[in-house]
Amino acid sequence: MAAMNRLLKPSPISSSAVASLRRCLSTATASESDARLKSPSYSHGSLHPRADPKGRNVQWVFLGCPGVGKGTYGSRLCALLGVPHIATGDLVREELSSSGPLSHQLAEIVNQGKLVSDEIIISLLSKRLESGEAKGESGFILDGFPRTIRQAEILDEVTDIGLVVNLKLPESVLVEKCLGRRICSECGKNFNVASINVKGENGGPGISMAPLLPPPQCVSKLFTRSDDTEAVVKERLRVYYEKSQPLEEYYRNQGKLLEFDLPGGIPESWPRLLEALNLDLDGHEEKHSAAA
Ligand code: AMP
Prior knowledge:
- The chain is of the alpha/beta class.
- The protein has a domain at 21-32 and 54-169 and 241-276: P-loop containing nucleotide triphosphate hydrolases (Rossmann fold, 3-Layer(aba) Sandwich).
- It has helices spanning 2-8, 15-28, 32-38, 70-81, 88-97, 103-111, 118-134, 149-158, 171-180, 216-219, 230-244, 246-253, 266-276, 285-288, and strands at 59-63, 85-87, 140-143, 163-168, 181-184, 190-192, 196-198, 207-209, 222-223, 257-261.
- Strands 2-3-1-4-10 form a 5-stranded parallel beta sheet, sandwiched between helices.
- Strand 5 and strand 6 (190-192) form a beta hairpin.
- Helix 1 (2-8) crosses helix 6 (103-111).
- Adenosine monophosphate (AMP) binds at residues 66, 88-89, 92, 109-110, 113-116, 121, 144-145, 147, 151, 227, 236.
């Protein structure tokens, strides 16, 4: 129990953990910020329409409530931009499915919808960046990190984030999306069995999302995340509003926040997102149309 309390308590981050993150990030970044300074067309981190999106080594962050689609749109953009999609939730799930010393405590925290300590997240992120560096990765889109102001401050101490995309959906859609989420245990792709039809509020547009069904080879291998139950999703949303929503103001003040209200499912949202990012799809769309 003492170990559990230690994990739940916001612990001070050791200088060695921050130094390790700084070391990893200094090599993971080949300067989007340099490109930004040199490019007159750069606007809130978007790309010049005619620039080849690959090789720009963007360092972007995806913010948004659980279930909003950070993983879906983050991984699609990463494929387009040639940078790794690094989701700290995936790192946590990998750790808890291992037989490592933290797995039991992590499972308890995650299944309560709470946040794990900054120290552990920084350590998992550093390890992930280190292994990526060994494979020659550069740039990234971070999904699920930072999640607290403290994590954002640490990130700012060690690197320069070019753009923060804040994805938004009404809360009723978020809950339905989390409850409908299914993951293939073999290929790791996310699907969704929910058929969403939410009326607009106060004269605003409604939202419809068709289910994103798996291909036949994945059907028998689908599982539901243990933290995608209604009670835990509601707690994750509460934690998000308390700890993560203040990040919107933090990045707005830095002039890095791009707000994006998702208009519907992937077919409606993906082209609009690319437009908002000023990204040119020529020659790239076909390759990514199958991504979940
Ligand atoms: P996600 O897949 O992003 O919903 O994350 C799943 C769970 O992993 C969260 O509910 C947290 O318990 C944990 N987690 C992921 N990222 C972080 C983070 N940056 N800080 C603290 N806990 C995190």
